[in-house]
């Protein structure tokens, strides 16, 4: 179960959409969450990892090194700025 408070203007839009389509507000809230949860997870986890790297608590690896480690250097096609159209 999830309960959330929305700004009045968003609540009104959601209410109108539900009335016009015959679906519930919960249906549209669920759809919005399902549609965007992956992107939100990616963004927030990436942001947290960047903070860890900047604070020196995590390290990075160069792309070419990673590709070589996993035997993918022949499969990668990476456009360099010099080669871009």
What would a concise description of this structure say?
The chain is an all-alpha fold. The chain has helices at residues 8-21, 25-54, 63-69.
Task: Give a verbal description of the structure.
Helix content is 60%, strand content 0%. The chain has 3 helices and no strands. By secondary structure, the protein is mainly α.
Uncertain segments are none
**How many structural domains in the coordinates?**
1
What structural class do helix, strand and pairing data support? Answer: mainly alpha
How is the main sheet built? none
Give the terminus-to-terminus CA distance: 51 Å
Tell how many strands the DSSP assignment holds: 0
Which SSEs are present, and which pair or pack?
Layout: H1 8-21, H2 25-54, H3 63-69
Helix pairs in contact: 1-2
Please tag this protein with its features.
mainly alpha, 85 residues, 3 helices
């Amino acid at each position: 179960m999830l309960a959330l408070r929305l700004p009045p203007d968003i609540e009104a839009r959601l209410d109108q959409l539900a009335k016009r389509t015959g679906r519930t507000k919960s249906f549209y809230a669920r759809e919005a969450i399902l549609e965007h949860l992956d992107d939100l997870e990616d963004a927030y986890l990436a942001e947290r990892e960047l903070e860890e790297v900047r604070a020196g608590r995590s390290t990075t690896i160069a792309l070419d090194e990673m590709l070589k480690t996993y035997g993918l250097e022949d499969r990668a096609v990476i456009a360099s700025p010099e080669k871009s159209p």
